[in-house]
Design a protein that fits this description.
two-stranded antiparallel sheet; alpha+beta; binds zinc ion; two-stranded antiparallel ribbon
């Protein structure tokens, strides 16, 4: 059965493209998940208290964030995967979808 489906897939023109597309979709997460994931986080600078709502990248973790007000370069606290997990009011999208450690899996 498995071999048959493999052969069938090979017979379809552009199968490789389809697989690549599938991977891209998986990378962007299942659609059901996306709708539940909060992409806006209110980042608060630990140095000056300035806060700003930022949009988080879905497919990557952000390691650095420059505070708009005091220009401090924020980095994640030890144990956190990104600046949003450390200083935002919402965990980053990978953590929302996969839990702690969901970040940087790819
Ligand atoms: Zn600041």
């Amino acid at each position: 059965m498995k071999q048959d489906s493999r052969r069938n897939r090979r017979a379809i023109a552009g199968a490789a493209v389809a697989i690549l597309e599938l991977r891209a979709i998986r990378r962007r997460w299942r659609e059901a998940d996306i709708s539940e994931i909060i992409l806006q986080s209110n980042l608060t600078c630990p140095l000056c208290g300035h806060s700003k709502i930022e949009t988080m990248p879905v497919d990557a973790c952000q390691w650095f964030y420059e505070c708009e007000q005091c220009h401090a370069l924020l980095r994640p606290r030890p144990g956190d995967c990104c600046v949003f997990c450390s200083y935002g009011n919402v965990p980053c999208p990978p953590v929302q979808a996969h839990g702690q450690g969901g970040c940087g899996q790819d």
